[in-house]
Amino acid sequence: MKAVKISEIQEKVRQIEDVTAESGAFVSALDAAAERISAMDRKRPVRVLTDYDADGITSGYIMQKALDALGFEDVKVTCNDRAYGYGVMGLMDHVPREDASYIVLDMGTNEQKEIGGRFGRDAVIIDHHIPAAPPADVPHVFNPQTLGEESPAQYCTAGLAYRLYESFGLEPDPVRDNTVLAMAAIGTCADVV
After folding, report:
1. What is the pLDDT of residues 112-153, one digit of tens each?
2. C-alpha dist (Å) from residue 76 to 26, 51, 73
3. How confident is the model at residue 36 (pLDDT cuts 50, 70, 90)?
4. How many C-beta neighbours within 10 Å does residue 163 have?
5. How many other CB atoms sit within 10 Å of the CB of residue 166?
6. Phi-psi map region of 149: left, alpha, beta (phi>0 left; psi -120 to 50 alpha)
7. Which of 50, 84, 111, 153 is exposed most, by the fewest CB atoms within 10 A?
8. Residues 6+ apart with CB under 8 A from 147
């Protein structure tokens, strides 16, 4: 069996990204999400709520690594194990209310109004699920499916989290960077399967 180098995987990902043809709307939404997260108060707690499947867990890992590298002091990731149902609604009553910034991963596109009501307008949703209704103007949503394009860039949430990670302009850290890339690949493959 031939050993695969990380640089070969990165090159393959870049080739695939070229095919997905990220539109100007996608890049604008990516930049807006990155700016919104980067502008959060680093001393205020950040709570990441994510789904429990492979896409949710790996995107939570990627986001935690990004927030840690950005210097956020108090980051906690909570996975929805679906004991209370899918999505944020079932989880909300079991997550303590805190004065914190919230990032919701791999769910939430169809719960924007509720998320805004519970966690505030500064909540950020990063998701890839097709919306059931037009987006509500409550929290910020980074979801290619809400851009109204015929063929938006196809990413699962782990891929979107990875694109955000890249856009933060972090100092290179080969171990962290390679691990985050591997998590994006695992989350993507598992979500497709």
Report:
1. 888 888 888 789 999 999 888 776 666 789 998 888 766 556
2. 28, 14, 10
3. very high
4. 22
5. 16
6. beta
7. 84
8. 23, 25, 26, 29
